[in-house]
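Q: Could you fold this chain for me?
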Amino acid sequence: MFPLVPELRSVLEQQLAATRAFEQRTGSVVPWLFHREGQPIRSFRRSWVTARTKAGLADRIPHDFRRTAVRNLERAGVPRSTAMAMVGHKTRRIYRRYAIVDEAMLREGAAKLAGFQYTHSPVPRSSHSRRAPRATGGAREHGQSHGSGR
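A: Sure. Below is the predicted structure, expressed as structure tokens.
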């Protein structure tokens, strides 16, 4: 099982309904969720170019969206092992190639650090609250060395 965000689930359910309707109309069984008149999609290049142009993203490639997915998983705080499984990366090395840090992430990190420092600011200690060094009576603590110096 792969958990889906509601929007993606809705799109896939609509596509499944369209595929089932095609099967009913034609009396055929289509083993693919995405197809062209019951036949497997061999290439989606032309469709991709048309879709990205209509969306105003003419310079995008499919891996740009994979990077976006990885970045969103990172921002959402999803554990890396879970994120890797969700996007299909088998090694951390490949995952890191997609986990590109952008300016927004840097600003978010700085804001988190500032919030942390504000809530965890050290309390200044007075000169009277310092602990005295522990005395164990060992030779090293008194500047004496015996033997090999270990």
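A (continued): The CA atoms of residues 71 and 99 lie 6 Å apart.
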